[in-house]
Amino acid sequence: MLGVRMAGDRTPASATGRCSVAGSELELDGEQAASAATIAAVARSRGLPERAVVIALATAQQESTLRNLDHGDRDSLGLFQQRPSQGWGSPEQVRDPVYAAGKFYDRLVEVPGWETGRLTEVSQSVQRSGFPEAYQKHEPMAQTLTSALLTGGLSCSWEPQEVGGRLSERTSAAAGRAERELGVSASEEFGAVSLDPAAGWLGATWAVAHAEGLQVESVAYAGRTWTPEGGWADSGAGAGAVRLELRA
């Protein structure tokens, strides 16, 4: 199982960390990484393939640079700049990253040939933008980031902040958030959350991407452990094995 050890609670909007993708020059700030991980997690919870994540990330990069914006053209809001006046949901809903990603995927899967079509044409079929070719340039970035999220290639770091709130409440909040976003079961211990093995590397990188906001101290999965100070490192028995175990 995947172990997520808690150390505090901060909101994504306050994220100050930096995240990088192994083997590439791609870097994101903490808010962008958390947004990307949520978008990928919602796709996983719906059983959608990798291509859906690539399309969604490229679209959100163009629309908001992977930030949950409280403004936009006319009444556009959120990661995908969805317009409440056009039936996307209430202002509060479209600024909920989980809801916004879900609505994007709802419309994406209705586009004929979306899995094999040219990315910008598929995105435009969903978004109806005034700049229909604008999404295409983000495909390489989106593919790189998607691969990192699905294989454990994302790492983040930041300066530790003072923690606050009851550890039991923060643990429950983290478990609930993981279940809502990833669509897997999460069991709690005092100060720790264990995600169902089905979460896989996406579950691990989701935890890393949200670690600053949730004040995660370490993430352990498949023989590797991540910390904000040291990134990913081998951690003894089981490294490289397919079997998923919770690190004590």
Q: In words, what does this structure look like?
A:
The protein has 248 residues and is α+β, with helices and mostly antiparallel strands. It has 2 domains: 2-18 and 152-234, no CATH class; 30-151. It contains 9 helices and 9 strands. The longest helix has 16 residues, at 30-45. The relative contact order is 0.21. This is Heavy metal transporter. It comes from Trujillonella endophytica.
Please sum up the structure shown:
Helices cover 40% and strands 15% of the residues. It is α+β, with helices and mostly antiparallel strands and 248 residues long. The protein has two domains: 2-18 and 152-234, no CATH class; 30-151.
Topology at a glance:
Blueprint: E1 2-6, E2 18-21, E3 27-29, H1 30-45, H2 50-64, H3 91-94, H4 97-108, H5 119-127, H6 139-151, E4 154-157, H7 167-182, E5 186-189, E6 192-195, H8 200-209, H9 211-214, E7 216-221, E8 224-227, E9 231-234
Antiparallel strand pairs: 1-6, 1-7, 2-3, 2-4, 5-6, 7-8, 8-9
Helix pairs in contact: 1-2, 1-4, 1-8, 2-5, 2-6, 6-8
Lateral strand order in the biggest sheet = 5-6-1-7-8-9
- How much helix is in the residues? 25-40%
State the major sheet. Answer: 6 strands, antiparallel
DSSP E strands, number: 9
Strand content: 15-25%
Distance between the termini: 10 Å
Strand and helix order:
EEEHHHHHHEHEEHHEEE
Question: Helical segment tally?
Answer: 9
Oligomer: single chain
Structural class: alpha+beta
Rough shape?
globular
Unreliable runs, pLDDT <50, ≥5 residues? 4-13, 237-248
Number of domains: 2
Q: Evaluate the radius of gyration.
A: 18 Å
What's the rounded overall pLDDT mean? 87
